[in-house]
Amino acid sequence: MCGIIGYAGHRPAVPLLIEGLRRLEYRGYDSAGVAYVEAGALRLLRAEGKLGELEKKINGRDVTMATSGIGHTRWATHGVPVERNAHPHKDNSGRLALIHNGIIENYQERKNELLAQGYTFSSETDTEVLVNLIAEGLKETGSILRAMSWAFARVEGAYAVALVSPDEPGVVYAARKSSPLVFGQGLGENFVASDIPAFLPYTREVAFLEDGELVRMDANSWQVFDAATLEPVDKPLHHITWDVQSAQKGGYKHFMLKEIFEQPRVVADCLAGRVDLRAGRVRLPELDGLEPPRRLTIVACGTSYHAGLWGASLIESWARIPVRVEIASEFRYRDLLLDGDDVVLAVSQSGETADTLAGMRRARELGARVLGLCNVVGSTVSREAERVVYTQAGPEISVASTKAMCSQLTVLYLLALHWGAAKGTLPAEVAARALTGVHGLPQVIEAELPRMRERACELARKYASVRSFMYLGRGQSFPLALEGALKLKEISYIHAEGYASGEMKHGPIALIEPDFPTFALALRDPLFPKVKSNLEEVQARDGRIVALTHPGLDLTVDDPWIIPEVWGPLNAFLALPCLQLFAYEMADYLGKDVDQPRNLAKSVTVE
Ligand code: F6R
Question: What's the pLDDT score for residue 79?
Answer without folding.
Answer: 67
